[in-house]
Task: inverse folding
């Protein structure tokens, strides 16, 4: 068996392939706190993220089935994001990460 196939079979590597990178966990956290969030509010809550990066990460999260995108055909355009049921299954992990961060970031 090739090393590449072994990597894909590893659950941790699979999870990191979906959620790896600097921004995806932060995006999921912000969406979870609002339940439904508009693009502009999400962008404002992640101040140092570039528009292109946020758009790309949201598309990847949507393609992975973790985020739902709802577009309203109006002027000005309105787009809202929410977690899918699959995305909501990550909340215990995010809550644990937040708890760990709260305990350890002041040390």
Result:
């Amino acid at each position: 068996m090739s090393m590449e196939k072994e990597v894909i079979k590893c659950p941790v590597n699979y999870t990191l392939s979906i959620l790896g990178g600097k921004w995806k966990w932060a995006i999921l956290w912000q969406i979870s706190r609002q339940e439904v969030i508009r693009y502009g509010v999400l962008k404002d809550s992640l101040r140092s993220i570039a528009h292109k990066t946020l758009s790309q990460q949201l598309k990847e999260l949507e393609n992975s089935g973790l985020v739902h995108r709802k577009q309203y055909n109006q002027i000005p355009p309105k787009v809202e994001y929410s977690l899918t049921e699959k995305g909501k299954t990550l909340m215990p992990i995010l809550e644990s990460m937040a708890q760990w961060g709260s305990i350890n970031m002041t040390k």
Remarks:
- Residues 22-104 form a domain with the Arc Repressor Mutant, subunit A fold (CATH 1.10.10.10).
- Helices lie at 3-9, 11-19, 24-34, 39-45, 51-63, 85-88, 91-104.
- The CA atoms of residues 23 and 53 lie 8 Å apart.
- The beta strands are 36-38, 67-72, 78-83.
